[in-house]
Fold this sequence. Notes:
Elements lengths: L2 E5 L2 E4 L4 E8 L7 E7 L6 E6 L5 E3 L7 E6 L4 E6 L8 E9 L2 E5 L3 E6 L1
Parallel strand pairs: 2-11
Antiparallel strand pairs: 1-3, 3-8, 4-5, 4-9, 5-6, 7-8, 9-10, 9-11
Amino acid sequence: xxxxxESGGGLVQAGGSLRLSCAAxxxxxxxxGIAWFRQAPGEERERVAVLSWSGTTYYAxxxxxxxxxxxDNTKSTVYLQMNNLKLEDTAVYYCAEESSGSYDVWGQGxxxxxxx
Length: 116
């Protein structure tokens, strides 16, 4: 069973940057994909980015050109670099294990707040 722990959230001004981390344990890192989701108050959870086990990436249109997903196999960690943050990026961000398009294991989430 994979265990995921997010960190790196915080308060940032619009236009600023944050890097979220998703530390994984429990199974061979790199044998599964990792996705980032976010959920704002009163909104549905939405998928932000995916990094497959093979290295293929996916980005939601609303973050393309601003966010970058990557991984460090030596640290069993997946990152989400977020640049040029906007007010609407405010949300709780979650990472999840991706396997054949399913997301069965989730972290506890980390809050990102973008202020004007």
